[in-house]
Amino acid sequence: MWRRRVASFGHAFRGVWAALGSEVHLRFHAVATAVVVGLGFYYGISRLEWALVAISVACVWSAELMNTAIEALTDLASPEYHPLAGKAKDVAAGAVLLAALGAAVVGALVFGPKVFGH
Ligand SMILES: Nc1ncnc2c1ncn2[C@@H]1O[C@H](COP(=O)(O)OP(=O)(O)OP(=O)(O)O)[C@@H](O)[C@H]1O
């Protein structure tokens, strides 16, 4: 039971690691996450602001990992051109875009006043 739980965690981390190795976008997110965490400590943001930043960062990472998974499955199922394959990839990319826009709004609201003054 516990061994299977630990193995599942291992598979999940292996997935994140594999995606980090293959996806330039994810490496960009890793750098952006490090910068945001650094800014959070530098400006001493509140617990609620940390919560908003954490949710935003997690949403972007989750969307990007799902996008990577859908890209892989699409390439497996339809290596040749197909409108549905294109739709699947475009919709998955749209999910990443929305998560990134939401994170940008949170970032602007949390850090904007601290960086540029009220
Ligand atoms: N098999 C396919 N059939 C139809 N259109 C496709 C197909 N593969 C890719 N496309 C189109 O090309 C776009 C780019 O696809 P691609 O696989 O290069 O992903 P990407 O956006 O470059 O992702 P990443 O840069 O994260 O690897 C898709 O969003 C889709 O519109």
TrEMBL record:
Main location: membrane
Cited CDD domains: UDPK_IM_like (cd14265)
Localization annotation: Cell membrane
InterPro entries from the UniProt entry: DAGK, DAGK_sf, UDPK
GO molecular function: kinase activity
UniProt KW Nucleotide-binding keyword: yes
Recorded topology in the membrane: Multi-pass membrane protein
Ranges annotated as spanning the membrane: 28-45, 90-112
Keywords noted in UniProt: ATP-binding, Cell membrane, Kinase, Lipid biosynthesis, Lipid metabolism, Membrane, Nucleotide-binding, Phospholipid biosynthesis, Phospholipid metabolism, Transferase, Transmembrane, Transmembrane helix
Family: Belongs to the bacterial diacylglycerol kinase family.
Record protein name field: Diacylglycerol kinase family protein
